[in-house]
Amino acid sequence: MNIRSVRVFARETSFEQLLEMQEKLNAVIEERREEAEREAAERAERERKREELLQLIAGEGFSPEELLGLSEDAQKTRKKTLPKAPPKYQFDENGETKYWSGRGRTPKPIDEALKAGRSLDEFLIKRCFQHCW
């Protein structure tokens, strides 16, 4: 709210109402101030306790990582990647046969064909498990 809007509002409101509003606003502001001070004190107390605990842990010869079971080896391990999915679809791109597993983003030639009304089944790789002739 800008000062001009406040002045317009004040001109249209009686002086008694403005004083009443001021008292109520002052009370609300004081409540918010007390709440902010209380929250700041709680944060400071929590930080003080955290520092105390870290000093106690260090005094006993432990690191926070050791207490959490995070050894150096565990920190160095990487997430295992999934094996590459076998191709499920094949398509032609500039005269070259390409393959797609069906995972991830749809290749542009397949996407364009689907938008043109073709079926995804048309691109399935035909697998022959018995004698095919």
Topology:
Blueprint: H1 3-11, H2 15-59, H3 64-67, H4 72-76, E1 89-93, E2 96-100, H5 108-115
Antiparallel strand pairs: 1-2
Domain DNA-binding protein H-NS-like C-terminal: 79-125
Main location: cytoplasm
Keywords: Coiled coil, Cytoplasm, DNA-binding, Plasmid
Descriptive labels:
single chain, 133 residues, mainly alpha, H-NS DNA Binding Protein, 2 domains, 53% helix, flat
Number of helices: 5
Strand content: 5-15%
Model regions low in confidence, pLDDT < 50 over at least 5 residues: none
Radius of gyration from the alpha-carbon trace, in angstroms: 35 Å
Outline the structure in words.
There is one protein chain. Helices cover 53% and strands 8% of the residues. With 133 residues, it is mainly alpha-helical. The protein folds into two domains: 3-59; 78-133, Irregular (H-NS DNA Binding Protein), CATH 4.10.430. It has a two-stranded antiparallel sheet with strand order 1-2. A hairpin with a 2-residue loop joins strand 1 (89-93) and strand 2 (96-100). The protein is flat and about 90 Å long. The termini are far apart. The model has no long low-confidence stretch (mean pLDDT 89). GO terms for molecular function: bent DNA binding; DNA-binding transcription repressor activity; minor groove of adenine-thymine-rich DNA binding; protein dimerization activity; structural constituent of chromatin; transcription cis-regulatory region binding.
Summarize the entry for a quick read.
The protein is mainly alpha-helical. 53% of the residues lie in helices and 8% in strands. It is built from 5 helices and 2 strands.
